[in-house]
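Weekly sync notes, structure subgroup
Attendees: PM, AL, DS (notes)

Item 1: joint prediction request from the bench team. They want all four components modeled as one assembly rather than separately. Inputs as received:
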Amino acid sequence: MTETMRAFVIKQVGETAVVEKPIPEPGPEEAIVRTTAALICTSDVHTVKGALPVEPGRTLGHESVGVVHSLGSAVTGFTEGQRVAVNAVTPCYRCSYCQRGFTSQCGGALGGYKYTTQMDGNMAEYFVVPAAQANLTPIPDRLSDDWAVYSCDMLSTGFMGAEHARLNFGETVAVFAQGPVGLCATMGANLMGAGRIIAVESRPERQALAKRFGADDIVDFTQGDPVEQIMDMTDGEGVDAAIEAFGFPQTFEACLRVTKAGGRVSNIGYHGENPAPLQLPLDAFGLGMNDKAIHTGLCPGGNERMGRLFQLMMSGRIDPTPMTTHTFAFDDISRAFEMMTSKEDGIIKPLITFG
Amino acid sequence: MTETMRAFVIKQVGETAVVEKPIPEPGPEEAIVRTTAALICTSDVHTVKGALPVEPGRTLGHESVGVVHSLGSAVTGFTEGQRVAVNAVTPCYRCSYCQRGFTSQCGGALGGYKYTTQMDGNMAEYFVVPAAQANLTPIPDRLSDDWAVYSCDMLSTGFMGAEHARLNFGETVAVFAQGPVGLCATMGANLMGAGRIIAVESRPERQALAKRFGADDIVDFTQGDPVEQIMDMTDGEGVDAAIEAFGFPQTFEACLRVTKAGGRVSNIGYHGENPAPLQLPLDAFGLGMNDKAIHTGLCPGGNERMGRLFQLMMSGRIDPTPMTTHTFAFDDISRAFEMMTSKEDGIIKPLITFG
Amino acid sequence: MTETMRAFVIKQVGETAVVEKPIPEPGPEEAIVRTTAALICTSDVHTVKGALPVEPGRTLGHESVGVVHSLGSAVTGFTEGQRVAVNAVTPCYRCSYCQRGFTSQCGGALGGYKYTTQMDGNMAEYFVVPAAQANLTPIPDRLSDDWAVYSCDMLSTGFMGAEHARLNFGETVAVFAQGPVGLCATMGANLMGAGRIIAVESRPERQALAKRFGADDIVDFTQGDPVEQIMDMTDGEGVDAAIEAFGFPQTFEACLRVTKAGGRVSNIGYHGENPAPLQLPLDAFGLGMNDKAIHTGLCPGGNERMGRLFQLMMSGRIDPTPMTTHTFAFDDISRAFEMMTSKEDGIIKPLITFG
Amino acid sequence: MTETMRAFVIKQVGETAVVEKPIPEPGPEEAIVRTTAALICTSDVHTVKGALPVEPGRTLGHESVGVVHSLGSAVTGFTEGQRVAVNAVTPCYRCSYCQRGFTSQCGGALGGYKYTTQMDGNMAEYFVVPAAQANLTPIPDRLSDDWAVYSCDMLSTGFMGAEHARLNFGETVAVFAQGPVGLCATMGANLMGAGRIIAVESRPERQALAKRFGADDIVDFTQGDPVEQIMDMTDGEGVDAAIEAFGFPQTFEACLRVTKAGGRVSNIGYHGENPAPLQLPLDAFGLGMNDKAIHTGLCPGGNERMGRLFQLMMSGRIDPTPMTTHTFAFDDISRAFEMMTSKEDGIIKPLITFG
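Output from the run, pasted for the record:
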């Protein structure tokens, strides 16, 4: 008799539910993980609103850690019961995109993001890990689940934002929006040598976290045009790089406007909410000739990168846990998801624990 | 009594003239060059139409070679009478932008482009060379002026387009438009390891030159949507990089559409004709997450780079002279400029010779 | 009853033989290829001389192409009977080294090189392909086996040498030794934008091939110190990059000596013959402060890179077949191996064909 | 009547003196700075011992800050009396080496290092600044001289060491020797995203500073082979990068030995003490094939980089002043130099103040 588990699914656009599903079996290159902790991501809120076409009944979630439940025949070097984290993006590592280093684009655009879009997500009691050899990351003993779970998406995405800003030490960077991914971009920019970080954010609790994670200056866009504020703060010269962590055309355009010639715009915002094309005004774009560069990307996965995030936590260089504003048992997942949708009570990231 | 020379100037928007001006004297870091050959650039046609605000009476031109007439006190290692080329962009090499490697953005956006915009251009019998130590390039004896003059803008800009495409050997690149800069981008991509070059162009004589310079395939946009044609040619996958050498929103957008995830869009087109912002449609931009990158830039100057272009000519690896479709004496500069405006008679680049 | 095949093995140091072995069966991630053509590599000559510790009876060879004989259960997108090439290096693509991009160091130093050192090589009628999803490369119909087989090691290694030279267009590079890998480095440097290639070689037939593949100048080291010759040829300044394709301390040191400050030394020579450490003389090394860089590497594998090599052949940009000086049937493999050892009759690469 | 100043000079090998010299006059591109604070560098100790051939009577010193005394005619944007710092390396920014980005190699190997070797150094009451437009760095008001003076050599060189280690966030780096430059390399690696820093040092006071500047682990080479200790600490795998900040063949070789395949060795040690060539043992060098890279370099100058160092100090991210173990008035420069030679009393850097 097949054993079952509970999973948090999208029933149809606008509706979620907890349902029973069979505990999955691993293919030769896969693993099954029993979930111990997870985070809810705003991108699932978008998914439930209908931003992405998803099959009804598909399990949501892509930020989970747990213990190895079973391993496929071709997976070596891991043991059942071992504590592991799995990135939101789980590339095959063997297609031409992966071989070129674009693992998040596994098999084609955004193809490394398999949970929810191509298979069941992992807001469930058990979940499948594709290409487990590369995608299972052992969690060091000293690192608790509530720390490790930030490696699955928030830190990897935010740090990618800082990497694509290609900072030289001491340079100035503006980070637009200090939601969890923007906060991680701030932390990443601070870690990778920024000399000055200007964080754009209006909510006091997020401003405070931004400061804690390394921001030097806060720009509150409710107090005036953030572009003007940043230009004033930089004596009219602008910043070396700007990170877009909001996902709106105005913010994207502002990133272009605040960067000096030779500057980099690094996009990590998800632009699926607003169907209008992003705009590149010709003055800010230097008529196409001002040596600016725009980079895009999607949460990079893989246990090598995850291991480096853990090393930074282990050595005390980063601590993402102040972003966990709320904790719920999986039994209360629906309530947690509602709060993530309404963004009430100053919620940043709700941690979900599994019995 | 001051000696005078003839110079080709903009009198006001829409009007040019040949006028007498004093032969300039060099400041300590400058040199004066007596012009022997020049090319007319389409960007001067734009300037005369009013694309850039330029002081009335300003000398036009930025693609000239000649011989050293006199040297400032701080300039060493050159001799009067020596044959030299000077890039369209003449950076100071000492400001913070230059030190960061963005020499075309000397002092700020597009600031390395000084001829016509900040000082007299060099479509004149004599011209000033700022920061001459870095901006005077000796022309090898074996290289005639009609070859060397292509280093001033066309080859440097086109090759920058190929450099910003960051090709791995054997990759596929599309080059949109085969005007002189686009043709040089084709030549550059071929030189830097492209495995397949798809040139977008409708005029037969430019298609022929594109083939001669390394294009493998021609896409005629009058025969159907070039995006569809390129997607078909690449089995629906798209190209690794696209070079925009036309300067229109549609072409820019097409570049984004034809690149696969992880692809690069390298802009060398001048987008000063059409005031509308460029657009990034969200599907082609992967919602900001498909690892695409967009690079912009402006003709890089400096005698080190110019010397490398000459080396490629000297060793027979490149020959730009098939682009010279017409030759005029400086006496006939007005007629040449008219033809460059009307683009009549299949004109690509008119060479101007000085007595 | 297990079917058998013939394989060319090392019996013990100094002795080879053709033996019968069972035709292998594929694991879930593997494929079996029936060999149609192969090249003999000098590194196998070194192996037989005892340079690497290899288990007696191990099949030699790592430059083979063929057709898919059978596929493991986890391998998709290939079909039995399909023509394929396999690189000498067959990484897993999933370990931390592979994820960091150092696929030739799969699992640890030189670990991507599995044939002969970790498993049977492929100078046999059938051979195993590990991680087949990434390591099987379809051969385009228009490309015959005698072309495709050069992608397995020679072109990939030689081109890596040129890549590590990190050439800007128009720069000068010296390539030390024009054996098959050095010749491919010359071809690669030419393809990737070199402005001048100085090939160091004394044998006339190799000098001729070097010229054919893009060398501008030949330095014959039997006619005087090659360092002095190269310094003279470059007006005492030296070259931008030097590629070591010989594998001796003197050549390595010469590479360091001929590079100017800021220069790159790219090593592709196999330094297993001479046990003495390589030396970095302090003057040529600028007391450790002259911005020189030294890069090492091992033939990169993977079907993405192999596909780009095929594209360069398909478009007519490269043709490696002039290096095939001799052809033998597999029946005559022992004679071919003897000639590769003695280097008699001007042999460069012997092609082995399979019935 | 020419005014005079005092300068600290080398009289002959092994002998120094304070002498009177005329206060210099600036050329058109130069500035004269009146010194307010300086540091003594161990490389001057080497120079006095005879490591570099230096003209008798040459002023020593290359780590000085002060106020602008006078400006050449071509220098703009600075004012007399302005507080400024000047890097030890003062490139022209216009030669081919500078244009290629190798400004420390201005005009040829090590040519950017002009003080003492090509002109009087700046351990004097006044000094000349070549190419002042690029080499004068305004000191922010909030930054005192004893902080600013660390930008002249220590921080720029140490941070270059970390830059050449090309760290991905979270990687492990070993820094060999924690003299002032090694300490700055530790600080730089910490600032640029290292996940674990292993500092090799035996002196307790330097170990303590290393910890303060970001080292996670200390290896005391008097307690056992540092290579073995580091391999043990990394579970036999080795480090991603090693920085050589000592300048001895054994340390250089150890750097190669402790790096894993794909690792980087970044040299900042000055190897002028020991004339023997450095050695690359073939096992640690992977027979030339293990994807290791070796980078060398010399203190990068320029006010753009200096400004970024100041920004890091201004924002509180770095504080180099704990390295100042001793302070002397310029009157006592001879005593200070003696102590720097004997390394007595735990001296790290002595600050010299000018009346």
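Discussion: The mean pLDDT of chain A is 97.
Action: AL to compare against the crosslinking data before next sync.
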